[in-house]
């Protein structure tokens, strides 16, 4: 749920108006949001993997 809230926050922060094209400022802002989303997703995935390994006794 927090990831979805983060996505909403990024959209609201980055996109001032909708249209056929994104200006460079909006595109850069959204790219940064996507990069942070990927970072968080990888962090969560790695943490779950660590917990699974720990619970399996590996």
From TrEMBL:
It holds the Pfam family zf-Tim10_DDP. Residues 2-50 form the Tim10-like domain. One of its GO terms (biological process) is protein transport. It comes from the Eukaryota. Keywords: Chaperone, Disulfide bond, Membrane, Mitochondrion, Mitochondrion inner membrane, Protein transport, Translocation, Transport. GO terms for cellular component: mitochondrial inner membrane. It is a peripheral membrane protein. InterPro entries: Tim10-like, Tim10-like_dom_sf. Mitochondrial intermembrane chaperone that participates in the import and insertion of some multi-pass transmembrane proteins into the mitochondrial inner membrane. Also required for the transfer of beta-barrel precursors from the TOM complex to the sorting and assembly machinery (SAM complex) of the outer membrane. Acts as a chaperone-like protein that protects the hydrophobic precursors from aggregation and guide them through the mitochondrial intermembrane space. Belongs to the small Tim family. The twin CX3C motif contains 4 conserved Cys residues that form 2 disulfide bonds in the mitochondrial intermembrane space. This is Mitochondrial import inner membrane translocase subunit. It comes from Asbolus verrucosus.
């Amino acid at each position: 749920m927090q990831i979805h809230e983060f996505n909403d926050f990024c959209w609201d922060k980055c996109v001032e108006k909708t249209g056929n094209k994104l200006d460079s400022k909006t595109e850069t802002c959204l790219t940064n949001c996507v990069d942070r989303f990927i970072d968080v997703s990888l962090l969560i995935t790695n943490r779950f993997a660590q917990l699974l390994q720990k619970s399996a006794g590996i």
